[in-house]
Request: fold
Amino acid sequence: MNPLSWERVPQVLGPERIVRAGRLLREDKELLVYTSILAVVLFMGLFGPWLAPYDYTATQYGADGTVLRAEGPSLAHPLGTTHIGQDVLSRLLIGARPTAITGLLGGVLIISIGTTVGVTAGYVGGWTENVLMRLTDFVYGVPLIPFAIVLLAFMGFGLLTTILALGLILWRGSARVLRSQVLQIKERPFILAAKATGMSTRGIIRTHILPNIAPMMLLYFSLGIGYSILVQAGLSFIGISNPFVPSWGVMIRNAYDSGFVQEAWWWTLPPGLLISLTVLAAFMFGRKYEEVTTGESDESSLAMGG
Amino acid sequence: MSTPLLEAEDLTIQYQTSSGPLTAVSNASFTIESGEYFGLVGESGCGKSTIAKAVVGGLDSNGAITSGTLRYKGTEVQDYSEREFNDEVRWKEISLIPQSSMNNLDPLQRVSDQATEIASVHTDMGKEAALERFQEMFETVGLQPSRIHDYPHQFSGGMQQRAIIALALFLEPSVIVADEPTTALDVIMQDQIFKYLDEMKAELDTSMLLITHDISLVFESCDRMAVMHGGQVAETGSTTDVYDDPRHPYSILLQEAFPDIQHPERELGTIDGTPPESYGQVAECTFVERCPWATEECLEAEPPLDSVDGNERHRAACFRMDEVHDRYEVEGKPEATGIQTDGGAR
Amino acid sequence: MSADAPLLEVDGLKKYFAQDRSLSDVLLRREPDYIQAVDDLSFDLHENEVKGVIGESGCGKTTLLMTLLGLSEKTEGNVRFEGTDYAEFDRSDWKEFRRRVQVIFQDPFNSLDPKKTIRRSLEIPLEVHDIGDRERRIHETMEMVELGPPERYLDRYPNELSGGEKQRVSIARALILDPDVIMADEPVSMLDVSTQAVILKLLSRLIEEQGLSMVYISHDLSTVSYICDEINVMYLGRIVETAPTMELLSDPQHPYSRELIDAIPVPNPHADRERTSLEGSTPDPIGLGEGCRFRDRCPKRMDVCETTPRTVGTDHEVACHLYYDHDATQATGEVVRSTPDERLAETGSPPTDGEGAEADR
Reply:
């Protein structure tokens, strides 16, 4: 049976959803903080190139005509310059885009594969489940970085190939968790009732299963974003990436390579800090959201118990 | 008249929620004497489980006794800290038979180990003595004494519940709080367990606070009882009083709603609506929306628990308890519910 | 009422579940143990009939329901709907079956999709069967289950409704396809007592008005009597007694039925009911061979109970050796009913050495 991971949760951004989301954000300050951080990064990813004050490859000259090598922060260059005179701020803003793309595409790939495998295994059961779970176990056994290195060696060090490498491995966590959620849900009476009214397996998965595992899917999507960015930064740092695309990981690598890493804190701190913040925000957003939405349904059932 | 073993006086318990303080119990009063089985009956949302938890000092973290007193053997315990409760009261004075045995027996520990652990935490009893006592208890509840060293999963559901009863009893507490002890069990198993509970009463002189939604269990096994609705005690008295002469409309209607297997052709009573969820202070009778005899008066204040016909031992919290009783005898239950400005005359 | 052909026919139904085997069992090719959840059960349902199936947990009643609904495949035997065996259904047969046979479950908190509004929950079955005029049907069905005005409820989510209201919605969902048969799995056991009667009365009225048939399973005899014409008592996968409701309650014949009824608490402090003398608990239905499955706990056990008892009787059927004359049966080949008194007079207290049975011969 082919479950509908590509026709994923129709998280219809209808007016009701938006109002509810707004209320959630207003109520939970923590959630607001994480969402804001992610929004800023997304904004930088979208508009970075236009916001960058300088061309990110251009050499910057000082008033006296000399190259501004590894200069600290100044009014003209708030985040200073690199060892060959490039403006760090501009590079940072440009670098937001590959980071955002990695996060989003990586997250999408992870959750798509994870949901397909997890939901099929959980709902269909039998041999299918066995095979899919053994596959998941196998993928758990594959070490991520070496796998990425090998794959990229064959396919080239591109941004998209990196995302592919991550996606092909990191789906394993969400698959397991979503499968166990599906196992719990499928025994609930409303699923049996749906079967009794003649709904097809596809129909049940699409109409009843997916919406009910949506919070967990969102959590793992957020985790996927975080992990993708983190791993891609790591790969960049060890040199397994395209050095010409100035993602934040690459910036740190460049700083390291230049030998100025100890002095030029303005060069390494911003990207490092931003990577950490983004990943943290992604993880915490997912966790918090899941906690909040589960909490809502718990409270209403608290009142029921004499 | 000696001091009652357990006494609740105007007890109010609230839970802090995002929508404000949820009043689960409002000004509840009742007493349990020594050697007496007391039944607390009510439907969902009436507060009986909350009272059970409060008595064993196990209220959820967002719950607290906000007013009133809970006295055990004359000492006020509502303000006891967790530590004090553990040292003084729990297990050796007041113990609990919880609803579902599965969550209360550690699956990784032998039952005998759980017993000795409990004994060492709450008493000075040595391990040998504790095991001996526990074995005796096993026998009392009809389990083979040699099985005390088994793991919980080696017992069937009904036997697990009996093992829990043995655990609750072996330190010879004065009060056992049984919170829906047989709800998850089949009717034959339920009867077996109550058979043992009956026998224990004769042998051990322990009191029991039986919390249940099933009034038949209370009528059959308890000496005295209280009926609760929406956090308030509606009526309290001996089981025979409440059965022969119910005064609170809810007592009357609740009894009508229970099927009696000895009279299967009898029409089952119904009660419209559902109990309210009260926030903050309760200033009315919580049964008012569902009551066929309600009047304006019932909205104005919480009805006090007054004695019925001068009998201190039989009390009802209804402004109209005498009229209602007379009306009911003559007319039965009126058709409409909610406030009747003409006094409910039909 | 039952002159026409039955809607549902169950014939010698068996549903066994193989127990998991350890690796060594598999290697040594040991036969798995079977959980004999339903064992040789036969049963009919006619138009506008309500049959109850009573039993304690583990007796197989839920398995029976799942098999009747076609959600669980039988191991042996036949289950027929309007004469056609389920095993022979083609796609369109299943489509029709799934419209005409519906179900109501016991747990109001889990019977509705928490993410769907009430309207959506009622709309989906109509979409599945491509039935039009949906708004009208939804409104009508809501009125039928007394959830009015419908607008008050339709746009709400299940967690905003009370237990009783949720069950009404479940009933509405079962009714919306205009079925002929409804399977009910203890629909009131999780409701407050004050609401139980309301829902039972509602069901009773709907059955009458819509000419429905129902199989109502429960462990609670006291509520079943309200709605069922006939009661089947089930024990460890077999039906041990079948009788019209009032007759079963006033004259339970099978020793198990007696024990069950006697164990029900009575809401009367003056009643002097004796506690059950039955010991132990119901065993698991695994590896049970021949013979009456109740014999290990039966106060009236005899030697002959080692053989599986046949069902005797016409209107009031019972599967118990106390109730038929073994000699006559052997002689004529037909089951001849005997009165239990004759046998009981001989046997007295439960014999285990067969002296009672001997005396009768």
User: Anything to note?
Assistant: Confidence is low (pLDDT under 50) at residues 343-361 of chain C.
